[in-house]
Each structure stands twice: as C-alpha cells, then as structure tokens.
Design goal:
By secondary structure, the protein is α/β, with parallel strands linked by helices. The protein has 4 domains: about 120 residues, 3-Layer(aba) Sandwich (Rossmann fold); about 110 residues, 2-Layer Sandwich (Alpha-Beta Plaits); about 100 residues, no CATH class; about 100 residues, Arc Repressor Mutant, subunit A (Orthogonal Bundle), CATH 1.10.10. A 5-stranded parallel sheet has the order 2-1-3-4-5, with helices on both faces. The chain has a 4-stranded antiparallel sheet with strand order 7-8-6-9, with helices on both faces. The chain is globular and about 70 Å long. The C terminus is likely disordered.
C-alpha cells in the first residue's frame, strides 16, 4: 500500500495534481494534501507516506527545510520537487538533500506520472535488495552463532576468523546475560527458545556486530555494542525485558558484564556476568544495575502518594479531574527518577485508588475487578515511560461511560504486518514505525486483540504457509524464507504446534483434499455445460 503527500500553498495546484492523475492505476492507494510545511509534517508523522511532491517557496517553513524534517520521520522518503523559480541555488540545495526529481512549474502531467512511477519502481527494487541481503545474512548469522558460542565455551581464538568483519573489529562492547525464570519455561522449550531469540535479535543490529544466543546454562547472552549514555543503555535493556514478558510470559533478570574492546576478551566479560549473577541472585526477580539508597526520598515519595490517593478517594471525580491528578503523579514521579519496581507499585496504588473511588461514588458504571487485575498484569516489568501511558489509558477508560474503541495504532500495526509479513518484521520494528515504545505496543496489542503481537505475526505467516503448501510444490525450507523465517527449524516447530502436522505431512494430507475438491468442481462444471448445451 503506497501513499503520496502533495505539499503546495496554492490550492489550485495541489488539488489539480490530485485530480489529474489516476493514482490507483500507478499503484498509489492514498493521496494526502497539505497547504504548508507544518500541516505536511503532521501528516508525514502520522501516515508515513513513501513519496512527497512539494513546492519550495512556502510561508513560514520552506520546502527545503520541510525535506530535512520529513526525513527525520521517514528516512527513505522519496522527494519530487516542483518550483516556479528557475534558481540555481534551489537546484544545488535540492541535490545536497538527495532530492529524487526536480521539475519547473508548470509540470507536464505525463512527466510527473513517469517520475512517480520511477520512484515506485525504485522502492520495490530497494525492498527486493533488502530481502536478498537478508537471505545472504541468514547463513552468515548462523556461522556467527556457532563461532561465538564456541568462543564463549572454550575461548578458542581461531574461531574469530570465521566471524564477519563487524565482530572482529575492536570496539567497546558488553556481554549482557538474560536469566529467564525457570518456573516459567514451557513444555515446548525449543520453540520458545526460538521465539525469545527472535525478539532479542529484533533489538540488535547484526550488521554492526550484535547478536543474541543461548548458552549451555539456558541463559540468553546478548553480544551488545557499548552505549556510553547509561540511560539509553538501560532503556534498551528494559524494552527487551518488557517485550519478552508481554510476548512470551517470561520474566528475566539482567546482568551486565564488564566492558571489553577485543573479541578475545569477551569470555572474561561473559564469566564476569555469570559470577555477578551468582553473587547477586535472590529468590525474587530483579535487574542488576547500580543504584543508590535514598531513604529520605523514599519517605517523601510515600507521603506524596498517600496524600494523592486520599484526595482521589475523598470525592466523586470527573474524567478531567482524574487526569489532572494523574498529571501531578507523572510530573512528581519523573522528577524523582523512581526505580521500575517502585513505579509499578505506585502506579498500581494509584490505579486502585481511582478504581475504588469510582466504585464508591459511581457504583452503577464500574467495571469488574478483572479490569484492575488486567492493569496489574500489563505494567509488570514495564519501562517507566510505558507505565505512564498505560496508567493514563486505564484512567481514561475507567472514567468514560462507553468502552474506548481499539486504539488507532493497533489497526495501523496490523496493516504494517500485512504489508511486511514476508520480511524481517518484529514488535520492535513495528513500534519504531508507529513512534511508540515496543513494550507499550506489545501490551496494548494483547489487551485489545486477545493475542500477543508476536503470536499474531506467527499466525498470519502460517496461514500464508498453509496456502503455499497446498497450492504449490515449493519446498518447505523455501516457503519458510518466503514468509519471513530465517531458520527453517523454527518454522517447522511453529507450524507443527499450530497444525499438529509437520509441513510435509500437512501438504500430503490436505493437497489430496484440495485436488479432490478441484476435480469435483471440474466434473460439475462439465456436466453443467453439457446440460446447458442440451437446452440450447
């Protein structure tokens, strides 16, 4: 599904372009119009078009500045510039901004259509190149897994030579150990391990020397480039933890090994993380990061929370009042920089206060207790920024008479999944296109649809696989790569869990029925034709 945005401050020109071209005939499904750059940026941020046709001379923000800002939202945005000024400076600046095509007004309709079709073709070619690169990367990825697993196990230096250049390069890295809760491991352990690795790798960049693997102790090892910004580093790990909890039901403990530069020293970082886990391990799940003890701050926070919950309980509240009290909570919590465990506890306390306040004052319109229980499950292991969003949504739903519709971004997420189903799609990549955090998307998707985002992707891929198995003679390994699986074993396990059959068994069984149905239809068709012939 391709989208185009036309930006021009002259209404006659932008509407004229929209009406003069048969958009569906050239592969464009939606066309958006914007009278200025501000309106265009809002639409680009919301709709993510693939192609922008824009004027240069516009009030407030020029077309050239618009191009710079637009590409911060859609890096691969194709740009066609239209201008009424034959100015060399405009041409030069457009070239610097990597504009894809440049026309002087008035532009010939056929020339513009050809330019748009050219950009559509290049978009398709780029996507095919990415898919080919992904196929090539798959084998390299498997070699890297084997080599690093061997390196961690035996510190065999010779294995480094088998790794891609990005892994051999000396640069600051960390080994991150993710220790899953043993009690939560499922019976179909192998399939679960594939799912978990798939989620972890969606946050990592293999091209820059990052990957995830399982060690012999059934812990996840992240081979991660060092991020000097501690907050960003922590946020990335918490996002992984949050999505794993939501998509697989697994809670993990995160242990950070010391920073190393040469690949030869990665085993030292790995063993450092394992020793730290043994030293810090307790009966409850936690994340191991440096923290400071601030008893006075804790005391003041508890006092604030107590006063706020008392105010919530004291009187009937309208939605506006409830959101004002929530804003006080959010502002205070952000200043305090609360640990995630305190955020979870405090948010649940606040949610409970709002729930029982409404139950006391508006007993006829209160939802069941499961509403509060669902909220408690959704915020478990969430990053603070996700908890704020979930709590605000919880309060808004609680104080609205009618149940809120499924959020718009869930529908958009499904469209993205449908469009990129055969590619390397993940919760993380979908969230980045929607400009929300992966943990928030994962939790709201599950709450809105009844299944996790990852499960939805798997189900849609397997539906496609079933059709291909019955209607073609393509080998199952090839089908696996065609529907977005890097590993054919992962595909086979997921397929068998879903259908009860291996791909080969499914093909053998259902192709027979498919052929019988086709034969019956052909037979019926011939007889109907014969009867019609006799009547004639």
């Amino acid at each position: 599904m391709k989208k185009v945005i036309i930006v021009d401050d002259e209404k006659m020109i932008r509407v004229g372009i929209q009406r003069s071209i048969s958009w569906e005939a050239i592969g464009i499904d939606q066309v958006f119009l914007a009278a200025d750059a501000s309106q265009a940026l809002e639409l680009i941020h919301k709709e993510h078009p693939e192609i922008m046709i824009t004027d240069i001379n516009m009030p407030d923000i020029t077309g050239l500045e618009l191009i710079k800002r637009a590409r911060s939202f859609v890096p691969d945005l194709r740009i066609i510039v239209l201008t009424g000024y034959d100015n060399f400076e405009y041409v030069r600046d457009s070239l610097r901004l990597a504009v894809n095509d440049f026309f002087l007004k008035p532009v010939d309709e056929d020339s513009l259509v050809n330019a748009i079709q050219k950009q559509i073709l290049e978009l398709e070619n780029d996507r095919k190149k990415e898919q080919e690169l992904l196929k090539q990367t798959t084998n390299t990825y498997k070699h890297a897994l084997v080599s690093i697993r061997k390196l961690l196990k035996s510190n065999t230096i010779n294995s480094i030579d088998a790794l891609p250049a990005a892994f051999q390069k000396d640069q600051p890295r960390n080994i991150i150990l993710l220790v899953p809760s043993i009690q939560q491991r499922r019976e179909d352990t192998t399939l679960q391990e594939y799912e978990i690795l798939d989620i972890c790798n969606s946050f990592l960049n293999f091209s820059y020397g990052e990957l995830a693997l399982w060690d012999e102790d059934h812990n996840i090892v992240l081979f991660l480039n060092h991020i000097s910004n501690g907050e960003e580093f922590t946020r990335k790990l918490r996002q992984i933890k949050s999505v794993l909890a939501s998509e697989t039901g697994i809670n993990i403990q995160i242990i950070k090994g010391k920073t190393f530069y040469s690949l030869c020293d990665c085993t030292e970082s790995y063993h450092d993380a394992k020793e730290l886990y043994l030293y810090c391990n307790t009966d409850r799940e936690k994340t191991v990061f440096k923290s400071s003890s601030r008893p006075r701050q804790k005391e003041l926070w508890n006092l604030f929370l107590s006063e706020l919950t008392a105010e919530i309980s004291s009187k009937p509240l309208e939605l506006k009042d409830a959101l004002n009290l929530y804003t006080q909570f959010e502002q205070k919590a952000k200043k305090q920089e609360l640990p995630s465990e305190v955020m979870e506890y405090s948010s649940f306390q606040l949610a409970s206060a709002f729930y029982y306040s409404k139950k006391t004052h508006f007993s006829s319109s209160i939802p069941s207790n499961s509403y509060l229980e669902n909220f408690a499950g959704m915020i478990q292991s969430s990053a603070p920024e996700d908890i704020y969003l979930l709590l605000k949504k919880y309060i808004s739903n609680l104080y609205q008479e009618n149940e809120e519709k499924v959020p718009d971004f869930i529908s958009k997420a499904k469209l993205i999944i449908a469009e990129y189903l055969t590619e390397d799609i993940s919760v993380n990549s979908i969230a980045s296109q929607l400009f929300i955090s992966p943990g928030y998307l994962s939790r709201v998707f599950k709450a809105s649809t009844g299944e996790s985002c990852n499960s939805y992707i798997v189900r849609k891929r397997l539906e496609k696989a079933k059709d291909l198995l019955i209607q073609t003679d393509i080998q199952s390994g090839k089908i696996a790569s065609m529907i977005g699986y890097k590993d054919s074993n992962y595909f086979s396990l997921a397929f068998k869990k879903n259908t009860g059959y291996s791909p080969q068994q499914y093909r053998q069984k259902y192709t027979i029925f498919h052929n019988q149905d086709t034969s019956c239809n052909n037979f019926a068709g011939k007889n109907i034709s014969k009867i019609k012939g006799e009547k004639l």
